[in-house]
Amino acid sequence: MLTLGIETSCDETGVALFDDQQGLLAHALFSQIDMHADYGGVVPELASRDHVRKLLPLCEQVLAQAGRQRSDIEGIAYTAGPGLVGALMVGGSVAHALGYALGVPVLGVHHMEGHLLAPMLEDNPPAFPFVALLVSGGHTQLVRVDGIGEYQLLGESVDDAAGEAFDKTAKMLGLDYPGGPRVAALAEQGRAGQYRFPRPMTDRPGLDFSFSGLKTFTLNTVNDAADKGQLDDQVRADIALAFEAAVVDTLVIKCRRALEHTGCKRLVMAGGVSANKRLRAALEAMAGKLGSTVFYARPEFCTDNGAMIAYAGAQRLKHGQRDGERIVAVPRWPMNTLPPVAEPRSNGLVD
């Protein structure tokens, strides 16, 4: 089955073609970062309008790259949520219009399931079961994965997601949007041991996360340095390093607990924050001590992209799952409500 994947959940317009026999054939991405940087974050209405402008040209681009025609498409997958509802509606509208015109099935895909399955696009994909760390701007979750659609939530953030804390810290340090990569780059210039930040919720049992207090601690540290006239470039770098180290240590401690709790020997890391080099190195070191293996997608598939949606959608479409006539757009959508791929039914959101 040749599946067209469409991603428009936030500020990235992603399109890809995935063939279940030949793998990923082509993918393209347009980022709106430059436009939203002027506002210090994503403006939902502007994001939706830009998806309208860019989506169909990107569809034509990936078809040309793959040497395929529209008539070759056998199924269409699009991001149905979570995400910005206007942006989701753009992708859903285009997907349903193309599906109707071509007479092919269409399916709304869960955005975080796409991230979770992105490592399956690599040459050495993980086998089930595994523990997944989903860490992005909107989510921080630990999930036991026994198969596609077989998800057990082990723990999640009770307040801010790790990626959100990175973005807020960037603003505190006067860094441009997007914040996460900027903080990581600045941390490279930091001096270890200048500051010691707390590792939230690691002194108690359980697998939940909390980053709100860490964000407040960072703000107080920045303000204190500024009040003393010490907030120069080096101190900003020292604070960035201390913050990043605290987040990384917290995620590693919780991942270790999850692997020990489940007995799984494979850890999948997915989502935008999974591109962080310090986090990757720390998780690999931890997993090595446990005799476990860490899997993650290549950097271009860590952030939002069409390839992960094409892959996730293909797995469900070939098992008979598809939308009804209505476009699906679900800003909030618990992933553990998804049906397993073995069940030949709709995604449960529409008739």
UniProtKB/TrEMBL annotation:
GO-annotated molecular function: iron ion binding; tRNA N(6)-L-threonylcarbamoyladenine synthase activity
Catalysis performed (reactions): L-threonylcarbamoyladenylate + adenosine(37) in tRNA = N(6)-L-threonylcarbamoyladenosine(37) in tRNA + AMP + H(+)
Pfam families reported for this sequence: TsaD
Chain ranges of the Gcp-like domain: 24-311
Amino-acid positions noted as binding Fe cation in the UniProt annotation, renumbered to this chain: 111, 115, 304
Co-factor(s): Fe(2+)
EC number: 2.3.1.234
Binding site for substrate: 134-138, 167, 180, 276
One GO cellular component, as annotated: cytoplasm
Main location: cytoplasm
InterPro entries in the record: ATPase_NBD (IPR043129), Gcp-like_dom (IPR000905), KAE1/TsaD (IPR017861), TsaD (IPR022450)
Family, similarity comment: Belongs to the KAE1 / TsaD family.
Name the UniProt record assigns to this protein: tRNA N6-adenosine threonylcarbamoyltransferase
Organism: Marinobacter fuscus
Gene name of the record: tsaD
